[in-house]
């Protein structure tokens, strides 16, 4: 009995390995649009905990050279916590899953140029199609864009800073981030610091519910239900639909979702470490001003989020950047722990 159990599990692992291999040979042999690095390919093949990282935060969030430092720092945080980082973006017209150190510098150094695009799901065919034809643009992928590419590669866990959402007034403008619909259709766990309160958090949570997205917040030892965090503050005035005890619990939930073959995504919010959180009244006033400025300048659509983030950075004289960085780092460490637990129970 022992022997046959061993045989079955070996066969099972071999077939899972074969399916990952098939996936990758499809991607690398026939697909000129997306290149998966050797390290990430091998990590997936051997079922190591791979963590996807997005790049809009480098091309449209942090200025150069802070963004370069952050990009390499986040990759080392994944490694220190036992994972393999898969930074995802578009370099010279080709989608990348896994960057070399030099390639990361090339992408982050191109931040702020008009030829460096913000790439969500809808933008992928454009930038990759032009790239194939010889017009090689760079692109930072948003959470939605990153999820599309990560899923193609077979990655299950993705960690980042802040989620897009329903914008204030979104019930009229219909400005709802494609991050939310992507979570509704792509099977992946995203770990982030909630969403910034320049968005309408209440409607964002409603929309995620409509999309069938499992949404939980890590309780960090707090009792009872906790708020869905608003990035710089742990409390947003909106209760999180679910409370998550720890990374192991998150991994169990992800595994159950895979087992039940539910093809939508999961979102785990990780509140900002208390020592970095900014007082709610203070950040509220700054955000209100930034939202007014965006309205006045006519920054709508995909320009809205980068404009507001930039205004907040200017008015807090860079203090927001320090908190921002601390939070992204903490999310990535936590996301990696989730991926490590998931790899363990998926064995
Ligand atoms: N929120 C942040 N920081 C960010 C973003 C959002 O606090 O960097 C970026 C992410 O890449 C997110 C994208 O996926 O903006 C959402 O943009 P939009 O609202 O246009 O979908
Ligand atoms: Mn939008």
From TrEMBL:
Record's InterPro entries? Indigdn_synthA-like, PsuG
* UniProtKB keywords: Glycosidase, Hydrolase, Lyase, Manganese, Metal-binding
Q: Does the keyword Hydrolase apply?
A: yes
Q: SUPFAM superfamilies per the record?
A: Indigoidine synthase A-like
Q: Which HAMAP family match?
A: PsiMP_glycosidase
Question: Per its UniProt record, what PANTHER family does this chain match?
Answer: CARBOHYDRATE KINASE PFKB DOMAIN-CONTAINING PROTEIN, ZGC:136858
Specify the protein name: Pseudouridine-5'-phosphate glycosidase
In its UniProt entry, the species of origin is given as Lepraria finkii
């Amino acid at each position: 009995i022992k022997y046959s159990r061993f045989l079955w599990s070996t066969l099972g692992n071999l077939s899972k390995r074969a399916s990952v291999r098939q996936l990758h040979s499809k991607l690398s042999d026939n697909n000129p649009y997306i290149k998966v690095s050797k390290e990430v390919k091998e990590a997936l093949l051997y079922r190591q905990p791979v963590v996807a990282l997005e790049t809009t935060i480098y091309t449209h969030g942090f200025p150069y050279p802070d963004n370069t430092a952050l990009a390499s720092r986040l990759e080392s945080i994944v490694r220190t916590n036992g994972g393999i980082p898969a930074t995802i973006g578009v370099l010279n017209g080709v989608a990348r899953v896994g960057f070399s150190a030099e390639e990361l510098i090339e992408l982050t150094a191109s931040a702020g140029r008009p030829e460096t695009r913000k790439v969500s799901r809808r933008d992928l065919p454009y930038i990759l199609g032009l790239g194939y034809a010889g017009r090689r643009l760079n692109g930072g992928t948003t959470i939605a864009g990153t999820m599309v590419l990560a899923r193609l590669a077979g990655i299950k866990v993705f960690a980042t800073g802040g989620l897009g959402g329903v914008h204030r007034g979104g019930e009229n403008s219909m400005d709802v981030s494609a991050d939310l619909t992507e979570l509704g259709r792509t099977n992946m766990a995203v770990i982030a610091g909630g969403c910034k309160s320049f968005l309408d958090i209440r409607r964002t949570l409603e929309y995620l519910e409509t999309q069938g997205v499992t949404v939980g917040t890590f309780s960090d030892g707090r009792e009872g239900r906790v708020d869905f965090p608003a990035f710089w503050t742990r409390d947003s005035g909106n209760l999180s639909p679910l409370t998550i005890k720890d990374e192991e619990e998150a991994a169990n939930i992800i595994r159950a979702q895979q087992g039940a073959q539910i093809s939508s995504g999961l979102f785990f919010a990780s509140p900002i470490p208390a020592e970095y959180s900014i007082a709610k009244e203070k950040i509220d006033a700054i955000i209100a001003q930034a939202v007014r400025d965006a309205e006045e300048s006519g920054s709508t659509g995909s320009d809205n989020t980068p404009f507001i983030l930039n205004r907040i950075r200017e008015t807090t004289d860079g203090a927001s950047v320090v908190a921002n960085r601390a939070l992204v780092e903490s999310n990535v460490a936590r996301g990696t722990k989730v991926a490590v637990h998931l790899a363990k129970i998926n064995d």
